[in-house]
Every structure is written in structure tokens, then in C-alpha cells.
Amino acid sequence: MENYRYLSASNYFKIKYGKSFQRLPIDAGFFCPGRCIYCSASGSLSPVQASLLSNIIAKENLYNFRYNIGERKNLIKLQVDEYFKRNQNILRFYENGLKRKKLLYIYFQAFTNTYDKTENLAEIYDYALSLADFDGIFLGTRPDCLLDDVVNLLFKYSKKYDIWIELGLQTIHDRTLNYINRMHDKKSFQIAVEKLQKNNIKVIAHVILGLLDETAEENIETIKFISNLSINGVKFHNLYIMKNTEILKYYERGIQKVLSYEDYIDRLSQCIKYLKSDIAIFRLFSDFEPGTIAPVWDINKTLLIKKFEKNLEQLNINQGMI
Ligand code: SF4
After folding, report:
1. Pocket residues for ligand 1 (CB within 6 Å)?
2. Per residue in 283-306, is it b (16+ CB within 10 Å) or e — as a string?
3. Cα–Cα distance between 204 and 238 in angstroms, integer?
4. Which of 23, 102, 159, 195 sits at 20 to 30 Å (Cα–Cα) from 60?
5. 218-243: average pLDDT
6. Enclosing H/E stretch for 137
7. Model confidence pLDDT, tens digit, residues 265-310
8. How far, in Å, CA of 268 to CA of 220, rounded?
């Protein structure tokens, strides 16, 4: 394994599992109990998947209501079929029973994927898992939507599948949590992490840099907090402002600013110093969605990552060095 200054998710998988991984992201028709002020209509589904979805379902039908179980299963099947159609190389691996080079996960990405009755959750998870030879599940949710019966259900799946929960925190600072309408505090995040870890479920924390008037020092406090919990991964996001979101109002009034990519890289690099060295980084930069108002970064993601890595090199920063 080559030397690295930070632990990327792909290196983490190579070390822990001996192979890389692939995720098939879906919108399984869930709701959220509230609306974070920065969240897009697609409920944080990846832009690629959101565009794929809007090609198969009229947008007005997709987000104005959520479906009954039968319709949700159809929605999931459409997305899985479409994904394999677009990724023929992966399909061949699985259909022909060739020796797999990658682990394949179904990724419940959009909205809050534990916010339903447990019998509905089980029916949806079982159905999605039946559509291909999946090795595990990635599942996006919130700390306040992990009641004991849901965690017990996930524990049952963990006996057969590798289970990862993507858990939104964003920041530990209460004034910011109130501002973005998260409806939970850092303590509930900590309780959720402890519960999941006890039940053999891995956790990825989501963090946003640049919310409200948070300084780099405040971002670092969030990273120190998650580093002291037994999480397995983190996703960093740079805040961006989408049309039709609540946060746009605050941006227009000058209450919410956005970071330049140079400033973001600088903050991210500082955060990396404090991130425990065995926590895998699943994301360094957000994927800008169509309809992004700000910031306008005239640079592609590959170049951003190169600049970030060069910055670590120049400043001699390694993950977890402090
Ligand atoms: S919990 Fe996630 S998906 Fe739901 S509104 Fe907040 S950011 Fe969006």
C-alpha cells in the first residue's frame, strides 16, 4: 500500500476487505421528519442518480408525494435496472458469477431511510436486497430516527450483510443546528453512534464546513468530537446554496456566506490534522447539483482533489497528526 496523507475510503476498503467497493444509490420513497434548510428537492440524492430518476419518473410525481409500498418497490426496481443498464461492466460481474473485484452495496441515499414502521422498513430492505447479489447496505439517516426497534432490525441484517449507516451531524454547535433546522443535538448523535456500534453497524458521520458564521476553529471542534466517538468514516461537504431552498433567503440577505475553494481546502486541511487516522474519508467535496446558485467554483473535482493533496504536502499535514 502506497503512503498516503489521509485515509480514503478506497484505501480503507483495500486494507480491511482486500478489495474495493461500489454503491448503487437509490431513492426508496422515504420522507424526512423535518427539512434542513439547505436540502435540495431530491433529499440529498446524488446529482447523477437524481437526474437518472427524473428521466424515469416525472419530477412533479416524484417529490410531491411519497409512494405506497408497492409503488416504492417499483421505483426501486426501475433505479436498479437503470443503474445496471448504464454500468454494463458491473452487471457482467454479477450475472456471469465472475470472480468479483468489488463489493457491491445497495445505497439508500435519499431522505431518511429509517423513518417508517419497522415492518415497512423490512419489506423495503428485503425487496431491494433481492434485486442483486449485494454484499451489504449503506443507509442514510438521522440520529433522531434510530429507535431501538429500528436498530434491532438493522442488527438482524448485520448477521448476513455488511451494514453502514450514514449519519447526519453537520456540526456540533447548537446555534448552527437550530439555524439549519436539524432538530437534534450532538448528544443524540453520540447516543445513536454508541447504539449502532454495539449492534455491529458501522457509522459514517456527515459534516458540513462553512455553515452560518462558523470559523475554522469551530469546524475543528466538530472534528475533534467525532474523532472521540467510535465512527468508521466521515463525509465532508462544502456548503452550497441551491435554488428553492430555505437557506437561499439567508444567503441573499448576507447572513449565510459561501467559501471559495481555496478557503475550503484550507479548512479541510486543518480538519484533517484532527481526524483520527483510522477514520475513512468517503467524501472531500460536495457534488454540486444542477440549480446551484453559489458558490461558483470554476474547477472540476479531480483538480480540487489534486489541489487539496498538494496543500497537505506543502503544509506537511497528515490525518490525525494532532
Ligand atoms: S435529513 Fe437529510 S435528506 Fe432529510 S432534509 Fe435533512 S439533509 Fe435533507
Report:
1. 32, 35-36, 39, 43-44, 111-112, 142, 168
2. bbbbeebeebbebebeeeeeebee
3. 17
4. 23
5. 97
6. strand 136-141
7. 999 999 999 999 999 999 999 998 888 999 999 999 999 999 999 9
8. 9
Single-letter code of the amino acid located at 279: I
What is the domain-level CATH number for residue 190? Answer: 3.20.20.70
- Please tell me the residue having the least CA distance from ligand 1 atom 6: 36
Residue by residue, DSSP assigns 204-250 as: EEEEEES-TT--HHHHHHHHHHHHTTT--EEEEEE--EETTSTHHHH
The answer to whether position 322 is within a domain reads no
pLDDT digits (tens, 9 = 90+) for 69-112: 998 999 899 999 988 888 887 766 666 555 567 899 999 999 99
Nearest-CA residue for atom 2 of ligand 1? 111
Q: C-alpha cell of 259? A: 467559501
- Ligand 1 centroid–CA 319 distance in Å is 28
Inter-residue contact 32 to 82 (CB < 8 Å)? no
Residue 219 lies in a domain: yes
How many structural domains comprise the chain? 1
Q: Which atom of ligand 1 is nearest to the CA of 35?
A: 5
Residue 321 lies in a domain: no
Mutate to test the pocket of ligand 1, among 26, 36, 146 (most ligand atoms within 8 A of CB): 36
Q: Is residue 320 part of a domain?
A: no
Give the Cα-Cα-Cα angle 303, 169, 318 (nearest 5 degrees).
45
C-alpha dihedral sign at 297, 139, 201, 179: positive
- Taking the CA of residue 43 as reference, the ligand 1 atom at the shortest distance is 3
